[in-house]
Each structure stands twice: as C-alpha cells, then as structure tokens.
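note to self — DONT lose this again. spent like an hour looking for the file last time. sequence + predicted structure for the chain T wanted, 272 res
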Amino acid sequence: MSFSDTFRNLEIAEHKVGVIWIGQAGFLLKTAGGRKILIDPYLTDSVYHIMEKEEGLGYKRLSVPLFEPNEVIPDFLLISHEHPDHLDMEAMPVYRDQENLQVITNTGCKEQLVEAGFPENRIHALRKGEEVSCGEFWVKAVDCDHGELCPDALGFLLDFGFVKLYYSGDTGYTPERLREAVMERPDVALLPINGAYGNLNGTQAARLAADLEVTACIPHHFWTFPRHLGNPIEAVGAFRELAPGCRLDMDMPGRVFLYPCGEEPEERSIHG
C-alpha cells in the first residue's frame, strides 16, 4: 500500500496530533478530526532545476519524495518563506486547483502564489505576531532570523489546545529574535539542524530546545542535497548534553509521531 493510501486511512485518537517529517523542512500533520496540515513541502526537484547551471549537482535531490503533490491534498498549507525548498512552485499548481485548501504564509509568498493563479481569498498572509483560527487549532506567526535576504520569513506556532507545536522555519540561533516563541512555551519543536545558510546546527538546535523547554523535538533540514550539509550525530550528542529533558525524535521520513507524548515514543511507520 502506498504512503498516501496508508495516510488516508490513518486514524488519530482524540487529544492527539500525528506529525510526520516528509523530508527536507517539510511536515505533514493529521488531527483527530481528519484535518491535514502540510508545512513547507518540498516534493519535486525544483531547486536543482533552478540552480543546475550555477551549481551543477550541488542541489540535486538525493531522496525520493514520500508522495506526489496530488496524492495528499491538505486542508491547510503553511509556507514559511519564499526559498524554493520551502515554496516549491513546481508542486503549487496541484494545490492551486483545490477549492477547499487554505494557505497560511507571509506577504512575499502570497504575491508569488497569486501571480501563479491562486485565489487571494484562499491565502492568509500573516505578519509576525498575527494569528488565524483553523477550527481545530490556531496558527500564530512568530519571528525567526533567516538573514537579510529573507527578512519576512516566519516561524509558526500551532496550538491544538491540548498540545502546542513550534515550527521554527529557517532560523539561526538569535535569542532576541526567538523570544516570542520561547515565551509561548510550546510542547514540541520542529527545528533545522543543517548549520548552513543561516540555520541552526545540531548544537544550536539543542540550545534552542532547552530555551523552549520542549519535551520533544523533530530535527529536519538536512541531507536533501549534496551541498546541504547537516550532521545528525552532532544533534544526538548535543541534545543529550544540553537538552536532557527533550526527547530527540529523529527518524526516517514517514514515521508518525503522536503528540503530546508519554514516557515512551508513540510512533508508527506508514511507508508504502
């Protein structure tokens, strides 16, 4: 059975949310009510197509996507910023044509999506500090530090009432820029560890997890491209030393983690 078929049949218990790393900086979430949330999906080889002349194989995709864009249609699509490994424009036509899909993003991404044919009334462009209700949960846009080339990049807080998830977006370890996220006291963090292009490395991710006082963290944003760097074993050691109260939920794409978590990982693989 394919990933998409298994995901479609996946049932989530009340007061739980299922979180799946889908590779790169992308995540797929499912609620007890069956709502599907897709965050920064990179499902094509678009970065390679953009960068091939300049970088050769530097940004060639190294792993097969878990699913094709048309195989999993979310109810909510969250895009943190304009970089093509987060705003995958080759995948967007599928989502553009879904009448019930709502997009939550920043103003720069909204402009690109509208230019690509998305109806404006389906796009919620948030500024830092703003929030929007999505029925079963709230999404709040928070600050992150992705450098001068992407000043409007966002992080997201997803508040389900019984658990709060923090998707940092692409960010460096700049405590004053991350203060709002820390004050929100999330339960789970989704943090990059590639340590390049202004992003956290494994040690910095552990420091941020400690600042946040989260009980679990899924690392991401590594090993997608030859030039992309990332050292997972650094994160393993750093979390053990710097964030001993945080469980590092490091696993292959396609693993389902259920939050809030108990003493042991609640997880299932739904690989096809």
